[in-house]
Design a protein that fits this description.
Chain lengths: ~260, ~325
Amino acid sequence: MSTILEVKSATKRFGGLTAVNNISFDVQEREILSVIGPNGAGKSTLFKLIASFLPTSSGEVFFRGERISNRAPHTVARKGVVRTFQETTIFRSMTVRENIIVAHHLRSKASLLGFFLGSRLAVADEAAFAVSADGIIDFLGMGAIRNEMASNLPQGHLRALGMAIGLATQPALLLLDEPFAGMNHDETMHMVSLVRRLRDERGITVLLVEHDMPAVMKISDRIVVLNFGEKIAQGTPAEIQNNPKVIEAYLGAEDAAIGM
Amino acid sequence: MKSTKHLVALGVFLLAVFGVVPAAIAATGRVDLYYTLTAVALLSIASAGVWLTFYIGRINIGQGAYALVGGYISALLITKADLSFWWTLPLSGIFCAGLAVLIGMPILRLRGVYFAMVTLVLTEVSRLAALALPLTNGAKGITSIRMPAELAIFGWTLIPDFNTLENPKLAFYWMAATMMTVSYAVLWRIVNSRLGHLCRSLQQNEELASSIGVNIARLRLLAYAISSFFGGIAGASFVAISQSVYPSSFQTTDSVNFMLNCFLGGLGYVFGPMLGTLLLYFGWDLLFATGKFQLLIYSSLMVALMLLLPNGVLSLLDRKRDRP
């Protein structure tokens, strides 16, 4: 196994508040790694630092040896690090299929001028995108809703669509922001198997940020635990479950949440 | 099936613009309509540009600035550099596109009403600049600009000298109608190619667009530059027709009208701004008979239309289609 992502002393300060403090860890090729922690632990901020949606205050993030922190998000996406969103972030006024097709942008070989003029390369691109989009629709079992307008979809389908958009970019590393949030047990288990298949069938490394403990324990190869912006533990699900620091952080989570 | 429908629509459109309208004017003798329709065609080009900025999710109330700049560039190049109008036409468009890139770089970061407010100021800035600069001859403007000269390639006359024509009004109508047709063909192609899909992705969610690898800053600039190109060539053509340009040739009211044209026709339809310009221009003229109530009736109608048809007049077509 080789290292795909390396977070080195990542730190983010908002004014006087240090949301992420000196966090380092790495993600291996074809690994599923989860970042967990109580509310306000800095998970989402760390997530944004990795996807370059926020600049770091200090520290760096490397993807396959290349620095990706403090750059424009689209350049990071171009290298193969693609994030999904917590909220229902989709292109609302497009159908499911259109959403996925437009998300193939990174894979176009033709230039925008080529697309405007309808060059041979552009026509081939569009055909390839359509085939690939249908493949993703089948993979995620969204065949029945392929021509639905995205704004009409229920929550569960929106989450799947968000993932489909991420997949369309053909990422090497997919960053999932709370993929199980608001799901019931069955939906969660379905999503767990889906994330596994991403790795097993498509070879995608997955880094996810999540609240849902049972799902995280089930899905992860390794887990990184944050509390108050600092990394307090790292290890396999079994190691994390028995780590006294983690237990303390979670038992104290109620008080911490009230205190904020 | 769909493409034949498109071809039929295109055929009907071309026949109406280049056949029926001139024939009807010749039959009725209403030669003054040529000027009106030429104006509508040119204004609709500027509106098409505004529509494209709407398409990336930006409210643009500054197209008048680019029309004015385009007009002055064309006027200056004709009078000072002795260039033919046909050269100044693309050059004024390109100048405006370049200017839009410079102006757009800082202001396209703004969204919603903030972007709209800054663009609203642009028209006023360009008017004041035209008043103050020595090059533009202040309030006196630039007058007695030559008519478009002959355009020839390898001795072949493509377009004759407008001075030699017995009816230059008809020639200007043909020019404006051709420019409008080409502009809308370009716009239609943009919208229906990947470029348009990316613009829509930008309009609907910039964060997600950048996360799928779209260089949103560059795409915004590109769309704004194309939009301003349309503004520039429309302004340059207007100057050619009136053979003069003043700081007041394009004002804030014009910028607002360009935007209203888009709203009226429909932001979701490529040909919305064209229809909007036609309706607004003639609507205003028709209401002239009502005298001092003109503005009151006009604005009430606009408010009513926005309430009843928020997606523009063209959305009526969709309603009909949706009905079983």
